[in-house]
Amino acid sequence: MKSYLAAAISMTSVPDLAKNLLQAEELIDLAIRQGAELVTLPENFSFLGGEEEKISQAEAIAKESEKFLKTIAQKYQITILGGGYPVPTTNGKVYNVASLIEPNGIEVARYEKAHLFDVNLPDGNTYQESNTVKAGMKLPSVYESKDYGNLGISVCYDVRFPELYRHLSNAGAEVLFIPAAFTAYTGKDHWQVLLQARAIENTCYIIAPAQTGNHYGRRQTHGHAMIVDPWGLILADTGDKPGVAIAEIDPTRLEQVRRQMPSLQHRVFIS
Questions:
Q1: Measured in Å, how far apart are the chain's first and last C-alpha atoms?
Q2: Could you give the CA distance from residue 136 to residue 155 in angstroms, rounded to a whole number?
Q3: Which candidate in 37, 54, 102, 113 is catalytic?
Q4: Residue of 37, 43, 66, 174 marked catalytic
C-alpha cells in the first residue's frame, strides 16, 4: 500500500440517467485534476427517483452504470467505486449493487447491499427499500489492492450495523467505503458520528461519498461526503453542496494509529 489521494464525491442525482452520468463525470474530472487516484461515487449515483421509475428502468440503469464505470476507469486510469445502482434480480426486484473497477476496466469487487432502509421517520417520511430491493445475503469480501490497501465495501444504511465492519476488519480491511444517500433528517444527527465510530472502532480510513440536496418530491439528502482517518479525524468534507472531498490515505498514519491504539489486538469476546 502506497500513500495516495482519494476522493469522495457529493452529488445531487435526479430521475435522469444521462444527466446524472454527466454530472458524475464532471466531478470525477475535478477530483482527478486535484490528484485523486481512487475516486468514489455515492449510492444512487446514476439514478435517484421514484421506486416505480427505478424498477421500470432498472435494466437500462444497470447496463449504463456498469458501462460508465468501466469506461471512466480506463479513460482516466483510476480505480473507481460506483456506490450503488439497481441490478435486476428475481420477483421484479433489484439488488442495490456497489462495484469497484480498476484502471483496466475490470471489476474486482462487488457487493449487494444487505441492510435495507425500512423506516418511518419523525419528519413524516416513510421509506420501504425492501418493496423494490432484494437484500444481499453475502458478507462483503475485502479486496487486497497492492497500491491502495485492503478495501472493504458497504452501502449507506449498513453503517448502523457495526458487526459488518468488524467482519471486514477481521478480514484485514484498512480502508472502508460507505457510499450513501443519507436522508437529511437522520443525517444531521447521525451521519458524521457513525462514520467516526466505524473509523475509530476498526482503526480504518473511511471514504464516504454522499448524495446531497433535493432529488425529487420530498426526497432530500444530507450531503457531507467525507474522508475520515483511523483516529476519527475528519480530513475532508464537502458540506451540503455537490463537490469533491479529497484527502491523503497514508499507510504510515494507519500503522501509527494501530500501534498507539491497538484495540483490535485487545478484543476479548470474539468468536
A1: 29
A2: 11
A3: 113
A4: 43
Q: Is residue 119 part of a domain?
A: yes
Domain total for the chain?
1
Give dist(CA 129, CA 154) in Å, integer. Answer: 16
Contacts of 121 (CB under 8 A, 6+ apart): 127, 183, 185, 186
CB atoms within 10 A of CB 268: 4
d(CA 188, CA 220): 12
Q: Is the pTM of this model over 0.70?
A: yes
- Scanning the structure block, which residue is given the C-alpha cell 443525517? 187
Domain that holds residue 223: 4-265
**DSSP three-state, residue 203:** coil
Residue 43 annotated as catalytic: yes
Q: Has 113 been annotated as catalytic?
A: yes
Check which CATH number belongs to the domain holding 245 and give it.
Answer: 3.60.110.10
181-225 pLDDT, tens digit each:
999 999 999 999 999 999 999 999 999 999 999 999 888 999 999
Please tell me which residue in 54, 70, 156, 174 is annotated as part of the active site: 156
